[in-house]
């Protein structure tokens, strides 16, 4: 283990669970990197702010149990990044009591989710939900009744809170995303290998600069470069197949796991 290695906090995304990290955990254990898994799967009906507060309670509990008072690294998938950022930037933004060295987000909708907005679109919404039922959204899904989906709409109060707070200068932000520039349909066949996004003038369009669920423009943060993994280039040399680069599979993609480990071991270097 590198002397820079710190405990890693793992935060899963929406409609998910801590099992998404099962491919990463053996790699952390092999490097003797301790990890704390935050589970918010049972917080049905809770919004981003409430889950962020629960994450803060979880961190305090783990620090009390382990006696560890130093900085941690946090790895998040998808909306887990928004939850973590809400804790760090909005709830703890002025006090900055949460000691975090780096935040690593996988496919994060940092600027809000076009797909979440699309669910409510009178022309496309029902068709999109039907396509993704059992794949990305649960059966019987009603976006109007889902607090997290409401919170990740680009114009929601939660997203406005994050934009107003801004990123913290004491934290290193890493954003790992994937792309499908070759237009491989199998990358995310439900949208023919593309990702929906909202243009600056409010129009819907599809792009190859995304992971099938989150477009690059939704992940960017001011001054933070995107770490983009190309599904087409990485199809060779026995690396993951294109579908492993879609949003759903990011936490178990071997190439992404390697990049996460690189950041955890190297720290801020």
List the helices and strands and how they pair.
Layout: E1 8-11, H1 25-30, E2 35-38, H2 48-66, E3 72-77, H3 79-91, E4 100-106, H4 114-118, H5 125-132, H6 147-151, H7 157-165, E5 172-179, E6 195-198, E7 204-207, H8 216-219, E8 226-230, H9 254-266
Helix pairs in contact: 2-3, 3-7
In terms of structural class, how would the helical and strand content be classed?
A: alpha/beta
Give the full name of the CATH homologous superfamily: Alpha/Beta hydrolase fold, catalytic domain
- Helix coverage percent: 25-40%
CATH architectural name: 3-Layer(aba) Sandwich
Q: Largest sheet at a glance?
A: 6 strands, parallel
Shape: globular
Strand content: 15-25%
Strand order of the largest sheet: 2-1-3-4-5-8
In terms of per-residue confidence, which ranges show pLDDT below 50 for 5 or more consecutive residues? Answer: none
Q: What does this 3D model show about the protein?
A:
The protein has a six-stranded parallel beta sheet, sandwiched between helices. The protein is 30% helix and 16% strand. The chain has 269 residues and is of the alpha/beta class. The model has no long low-confidence stretch (mean pLDDT 94). It starts with 7 loop residues before the first strand and ends with a helix. The protein has a single domain, classed as 3-Layer(aba) Sandwich (Rossmann fold), CATH 3.40.50.1820. The chain contains nine helices and eight strands.
């Amino acid at each position: 283990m590198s002397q820079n290695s710190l405990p890693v906090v793992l935060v899963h995304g929406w409609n998910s669970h801590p099992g998404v990290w099962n491919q990463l955990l053996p790699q952390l254990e092999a490097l003797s990197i301790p990890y704390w898994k935050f589970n918010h799967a049972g917080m049905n009906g809770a919004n981003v702010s409430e889950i962020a507060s629960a994450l803060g309670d979880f961190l305090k509990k783990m620090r009390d149990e382990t006696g560890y008072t130093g900085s941690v690294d946090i790895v998040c998938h998808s909306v887990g990044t928004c939850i973590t950022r809400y804790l760090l930037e909005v709830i703890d933004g002025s006090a900055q009591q949460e000691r975090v060295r780096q935040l690593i987000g996988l496919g994060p909708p940092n600027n809000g989710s076009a797909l979440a907005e699309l669910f409510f679109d009178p022309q496309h919404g029902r068709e999109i939900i039907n396509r993704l039922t059992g794949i990305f959204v649960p059966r019987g899904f009603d976006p109007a009744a889902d607090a997290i989906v409401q919170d990740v709409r680009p114009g929601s109060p939660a997203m406005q809170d994050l934009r107003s707070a801004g990123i913290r200068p004491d934290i290193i932000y890493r954003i790992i995303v994937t792309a499908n520039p070759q237009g491989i349909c199998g990358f995310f066949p439900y949208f023919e290998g593309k990702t929906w996004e909202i243009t600056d003038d409010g129009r819907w369009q599809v792009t190859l600069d995304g992971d099938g669920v989150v477009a690059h423009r939704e992940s960017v943060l001011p001054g933070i470069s995107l770490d983009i993994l190309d599904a087409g280039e990485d199809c060779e040399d026995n690396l993951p197949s294109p579908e492993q680069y879609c949003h759903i599979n990011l936490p178990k993609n071997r190439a992404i796991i390697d990049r996460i480990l690189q950041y955890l071991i190297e720290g801020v270097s």
